[in-house]
Amino acid sequence: MVIKGKHAASEFRFAIILSLFNEFIGQKLLDGALNTLKENGCPDENIDIIKVPGAFEIPVTADILLSKNKYDAVICLGAVIRGETPHFEYVSQSVSSGITQVAIKHSKPVLFGVLTTDNIEQALQRAGNKGENKGSDVSLAAIEMADLMRKL
Description:
About 45% of the residues lie in helices and about 20% in strands. With about 150 residues, the chain is an alpha/beta fold. The chain has one domain: Lumazine/riboflavin synthase (Rossmann fold), CATH 3.40.50. The chain has a four-stranded parallel sheet, sandwiched between helices. α3 links the parallel β3 and β4 (about 110-115). About 40% of the residues are buried.
């Protein structure tokens, strides 16, 4: 037997956590995420957007949201762009690991839509300037995973 999630979002509730650092990129990711959720039948009232100062604050926010048993999936969006110090590595690793830990702790999909790029151009490319939008991609995965989790 093969079990797979479908792309029908009307029955699910989603939280989107958006990092405000590099917000000009994050907003493009958010727009892509919202468009994809709505195109797949998710009503506005089933989507909550939570804005946090930076990517580092995403995992704890996701943990608190899932503790409330209100959401079927959490979509994490933001952009961490490499600078001249090791800060990029610390933040990227912490956010990635933290999101994974939250997903495992709650047995709920927590989607990683936090761009980790070497420069602004790469971030803009992945946020929709050339047709690709990781916000849209992770939202589609969130819908599929929410449905799959319900079936398991």
